Amino acid sequence: MPTTTTLSPLRADGVSLSYGDRRVLTDVSLTVGPGTRLGLIGENGVGKSTLLRVLAGVETPDSGVVSRPQRLGFLWQEVRFAPEETLGALIEDALAEVRAIERELEEAAAALADDATVSTGASTRYDDALAAAERAEVWSIDARRDELLAGLGVGAIPFDRRVGEVSGGQRSRFALAALLLARPDALLLDEPTNHLDDQAAAFLERQLLGWSGPVVFASHDRAFLDAVASGLLDLDPARSGTTVFGGGYSDYLAAKAAERARWEKQFADEQDELRALQHAVDVTARSIAWSGKVRDNDKFVKSVKGNALDRQISRRIKNASGRREELERTQVRKPPAVLSFAGIPSGFQPLGDETGLLVQARDVRVPGRLAVDAFSVEPQSRLLVTGANGAGKSTLLAAVAGRLEPAAGSIQRRRGLRVGLLEQDVRFPDPAASPRRIYAETLGERRAEAVPLTSLGLIAPRDLDRPVGALSVGQQRRLALALILARPPHLFLLDEPTNHLSLNLATELEEALGAYPGAVVVASHDRWLRSRWSGEEVALRAA
């Protein structure tokens, strides 16, 4: 692995970016040195993925500059590779720069051999090529490829399989392995653990803890943040636009709460002072006046004392006005309301008989994806479905919801059962439609009025009329969650519910599920969630 002395830091200075009239990033500055692992955190839509794209050079900021190491690797949330391409092609595409380094080393060596005088130019070129080859570890490509694929749990999948023939989690693992294999000087990772089980997440942690170059990653994974981050950049609105916290997620929670309390107190104190100053300006001149009946021989005294009093009043008003104007210019802005999940709305209607089963599945088979002998759900069930990627967690939920017909076996559902499924990958047919419109059309006017979208605490008022296609992946998933909860189903199925959700919402949702009036089935790899689960667990094995 290359030494840190050969690597450059990743820097951003004063980066700002807007989409139309919406400011996403405001004056963001950061320096990530070799060996530093910076985690990006914040509510959905605050610009974590946008900042990663700017750092990667995929997007150009409106202002500010970015300097980056020569070779930089970027992991997108979703694999950007055609479904008909093979997994082997995905690997080779990621190795394009490494192959170029190999060719340059060969050509530089040939040029040096042909240079009878061993000129400085030929020697320098060879030294540079050799250093680049060492950083990219070109001589161990095949061995490292096998190690990475095995460590991420996809080593047994043939390279000739097409991208569209494997699960979303397997695609993501191949893309991650390809990125790590390319050994870039710096890493940018957008939700790298979204599709990783415990073993794969632990393997990735070890890779990143030993990474020599700068690492910047956005993650909702609280356990991963605690294990990997050497610092956190909070992109939630704050006085300076961003706030840097040292340490992992547990350290952040305490520091964030203290920072918010200080901000709220300063704002309240300044508002109190502004009101007092305004009172002084408005009232002082009227309440302080020379009083008393003036006799003829007192007119001179009245004139002298009155003029002095007028000057005193004028001075007080001027001082108060000056302080008020200064404070109005420098006051901290009001802390924005924290988008907080309001919990499960009313309107749940039981099926009637609270005994018996809601769903019973027997001998369910989906070739290559799922093999379950028995699975049942009671009216108040709290089930956690676990298993390695490819074990069929998503397939089981889709089959229970009636969105996938198994090749064999039977799934019986109680008459009148209403099932809601929060899928991993949310897709809305019309990207131009707004959340407000989608919500009203899905629920109907009466229910949408009875349970307003904003009342759920999942979509900020400023985003109600934006095109859904312009929202972040996390914001779209919040909308999908709102569409289900606005009419609570008897059986609530959640596929990796914390994926793409902010840290705060993930915690609030977990707490709300405990009080859900119906049955809840969760499929998750989230170690933080699973370590705190108090219900039953169902472990699946690969078909």
TrEMBL record:
Coiled-coil region list: 253-280
Residues of the ABC transporter domain: 10-265, 353-542
SUPFAM superfamilies attached to this UniProt entry: P-loop containing nucleoside triphosphate hydrolases
One Pfam family it belongs to: ABC_tran
Keywords: ATP-binding, Coiled coil, Nucleotide-binding, Repeat
Origin superkingdom: Bacteria
Presence of keyword Transmembrane helix: no
InterPro entries in the cross-refs: AAA+_ATPase (IPR003593), ABC_transporter-like_ATP-bd (IPR003439), ABC_transporter-like_CS (IPR017871), ABCF (IPR050611), P-loop_NTPase (IPR027417)
Annotated GO MF terms: ATP binding
Protein name (Swiss-Prot/TrEMBL): ABC-F family ATP-binding cassette domain-containing protein
Source species: Leifsonia williamsii
